[in-house]
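Collaborator request, handled under Task 6.
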Amino acid sequence: MHLNWSQNAKASFRVPDGRNIKTSILDAHIQKAIDSIKLPGLSIAIVNDGNIVYHSVFGVKSYKTNEPVTKQTIFEGASLSKPLFAYFIMKMVEKGELDLDKPIYPYLKPIFPEGVIAKDSFEAYKTLTPRIILSHGTGIPNWVKGKPISIAFEPGTDFSYSGEAYQHLGAAFGTKLGIGWGTELDSLIIKEALAPIGINRSLYTWNTIYDNDVAYGHMKGKTNPEINRYKKVGPGFSLHSDAKDYAMFLIEMMNPKNITVKTRDEMLREHNHFKSNNKILKETGQTGWGLGFSQKPTPNGLMHLHTGNNQDFQAYTMFIPKQNYGFVMFGNSDNLFPLLETIEKILGEHF
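Structure tokens returned to the collaborator:
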């Protein structure tokens, strides 16, 4: 039996189709599901009308220790790193520190190692801008794993999801500022993007103060004994966070305070529309990408969403501005998405 720790502002909350759900019913449903699925640990939060109305944690940080997940536990956010980093970039654009449509290559040129880009892709690479990167229009593979980067199409003309491209944007901006892409860049992200919206337990590079609060990853039921203590900002993967902190980001996306409404609208506008043969469109109904989030039309309004998968950690988030509704979950294993499917039986469509 998994331990549950729930502190909810209300006894019930509203879901996108208008129904009210009792928190006790959702808690019991999740408890039963994670025991059945054998999910080690979970942090989950729901937003209604600018407030966190549900926040619960379940399970253990590690199967080896059976130490329970608490409200202080942080998880790897995997690709949920990307929308939050995009938000930081948009804040920097708003402040005049970066131009969305100016190529990033001039910032990287002084430090660019030879052979990183395939010769026949170099001219295309030199045209990449923050807007193209944030909306996944670069033509760069998701991860190249040390191989020369080959660009598959003219940037800005098609879709190719790419964590690799996000890494280049982070390096370019850190180099432009002269601070690199280590802890100084992370400190700037915290100062400009996270702290002003109430996020106080999330970071892209490791801080030892969280050594006792971190969940351990699990693959096929086995605990990974290593903690990824990232020393460099990985805009595409290195965020550590939890559901409550990330829910604060969803609140900001629906009710912006640290950025202007105009900047928020630019983030959520579709910048890369999927072609009719796009695999994601066919499989999920998502229609395109903004600057950070994917989009999917639903009967209850346009959903903005993102998945995260670092293998032994998985995460998921979505929000529907029309409903002022947001949802986020973090798990420390490779089997979070079956849990999402069973949660949808209670909450309705969320993916």
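The cover message to the collaborator said: "The radius of gyration is 20 Å. Residues 1-8 have pLDDT under 50 and may be disordered. Please let us know whether this matches your experimental observations."
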